[in-house]
Model the fold of this input.
Amino acid sequence: MADQLDLLWPVLIPITTAALAACFWYNIKVQRIISFIGLVLLFAASVKLTMTVVEQGVIAKQFGGWAPPFGISFVADPLAAALVAITGLLALTVGIFGFYDVRARHERAGFYPLFHGMITGVNGAFLTGDAFNLYVWFEVMLITSLGLLVISRSREQLDGTIKYGILNLFGTILFLIGLALLYGATGTLNMADLARVLPGMTMTPGLMTAAMLFLAAFAIKAGLFPLFFWLPASYHTATFAVGAIFAGLLTKVGVYATFRTFTLLFLIEGETLRYVFTFIAAMTMITGVFGAAVQWNIRRILSFHIISQIGYMLMGLAIATPIAWAGASFYIIHHIIVKANLFLLAGAIRAAGGSDDLRKTGGLLKSHPWLAVLFLIPALSLAGLPPLSGFWAKFLVIDASLRAEYYGLAAVALVVGVLTLFSMMKIWMEAFWKASPVKPSRRRHVPLAFIIPIAMLGAVTMTIGLFADPFVTYARNAAEVLVDPPLYIAPVFGAEAAAEAGALIAGEAVEAEMIDNGPVDGVEEEVR
Amino acid sequence: MTFLYAAAIAAYSGCGLYLMLSRHVVRIILGLALLTNGAIFLIFFSGRIGAMQPAVIPLGDKQLALDAANSLPQALALTAIVIGFALTAFAVALLVAAYKRLDTLDAREMTAAEDMGSPFLPPDGRPAEGRPAEGRPAEGRPAEEPAAAGRKSDEVKTNG
Done:
């Protein structure tokens, strides 16, 4: 029972923090203290959850004591638990970064309640085991992130927020339509229950439409080709702290939802679906990296690189072998840390050089040499140079693609890696190496509140890179659950139901048995 | 009957999508609201229409009546209505704020975010000699409108 509570804290702590901070709306100092305590507690709780999952495997909780398919379930498998832990780490580091970056007027506009509200949505989306509940968390995340994005109410932010908001709203509506079709066909929205029911059903047009609507909706959320345009149109307008947490987490929630849907509910099988996924993955990688090549604003470069890196994760999903999924899980974890760190560094470069536009800054190698070191860690990791975490991530994914004989995909991934290096070198040359185009009137200091989180995340990147083995093992465990849906079903429905489902999934290829029960009949049978 | 419902959903979604294709941001928001309603109807009807009995267990009985309505889609639809309402309200508030700052509701003229650090503009973010920048429509822009005249632009140019 106590273990089940572990599942609750990563959502309960931020939502309580948000509510408390909102209660002290006019007392900024109290809000700051509450917020920081909340972040520390959240980090502790998310680490605890991961440790519990490592010890006991997948854990689940039913809300309100309802029997499984009726109430809302929360399920933590290794992938979700790791993502929650990273969210806790990222929230804490960005919180520290925010000590300096978040201005008083942002605080008065409700920064802390919004920030913690967004973390609630992210953690909820990672942990929920119910498809409709996932929609609710998506919306929690969306509305708080809209508030965070527009927090300065500048012209750029208002414009960027409109684009971000409209396209993401459209995405959630597609998700909702997909949910309606799925419910109409199956009579359930509990993910574990869906994983039990769906393998026995034939792929009717309605189900196929639902699957493709999910893909489109999550593609908008994750920034996949060709639906990524909202991302580079808005992320560079946010404040630096907000930009970092967005870059690290929001698109990855979409990636996680894609993984959950297409490993648990609909399986990637058959030539067409495989072709669609590999095509999207390759195009996402290519368009992202070429989009970045032309940019001069650091955060615009990085925004496009989010897209190209998402392509690698989708590539892992598309190959659909256990090692590919392990590689992709590793990739997600590595990428969240590195990308958020780079967005924080954009803030530090601006503080040190006066601008985050590469054409207006320079000479930082001389004035802030340690900043150059801190930049090189995530930058080279993003490009995939050994011995940093990005090397192992790329190695695992590309190795899997070669083993599965996706040579074209592997070639694209390698070329995109080189082009990523080009972009990172561009930032390096322009911001650090070349002489500054403007004479600095005074020596600019980078506040300690910027250095600490950047160093922390850099240290994590180094740790993953130098001691990759435990992380790879963990990613393999995560992939095991993705490969074997009964492992996900068992904690929710019990071992028997999971074994039945396993037999059904295994037997599916042998006898394509049709279950012609209408959805309402199915529900009523379960009620009795 | 089912056909009627399907036609209603199609009408909602079709009108919503059509409005979303507009360049006028208010119309886009209205389109989103309609599309949300279409999705909500779809959820509602995905529980199948037919059973008219409320899903309440009579006193003394242990199970639902056979023809009880499926109450789950109603709960889902209610949730979606509340969320849709909140987001529409936020979107409208956002538009009011954007209209005050950007002075336009035409999506083509909303270029502030794109111009920020754009590689096609000089580094300071302002085009060399006033707008329009390269590749942007020259017409339809509130060119040198004297600010003193006030924003009399209740009729926002949408160019079709």
User: Anything to note?
Assistant: The first helix of chain B runs from residue 2 to 20. Chain B has four helices and no strands.
